[in-house]
Amino acid sequence: LGHSNHADIWEAFCNCLGEQIDIGLLEMAFRNTPKNERMFEVCKDLKANYRLGVITDNSTERSDVLKKKMDLPSIFDCFVVSGEIGSRKDSAVNSRAALNLTGTSPEECVFIDNNPSNLIVPEELGFKVIFHDHEKNDISGLRRHLKECGLTL
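The structure corresponding to this sequence follows.
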């Protein structure tokens, strides 16, 4: 939530493990986050007609690495990172921050998440919501749900 960063807690983390680990391995782990190419294809298709944003519970450090590695700013117009605003994405704070950044109303937005509990607040605010099971990664099903929400792909 931005109260501390990885460097702040790294020594305590290593002590808990009973092992000293080079903090540089953490950034390497961030860089090895797999990219869901099929989901990025959907995003690129949507980008032709819509503004896209990311709401994430990632730390600022991880988000910064992934933005650069995956060139996320070329696809996404805004980022709401829990580590930057001090609130998790299951809070209305994050959804409202995204609305403020995009200048949109909830009724104009579709929120996609792989955790059903993260869909509750955006839906209560008026967003259309879609659960996407990242394990199954049913991209054709996702495209169908997006069309059902009125989006053009």
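The longest strand covers residues 53-56.
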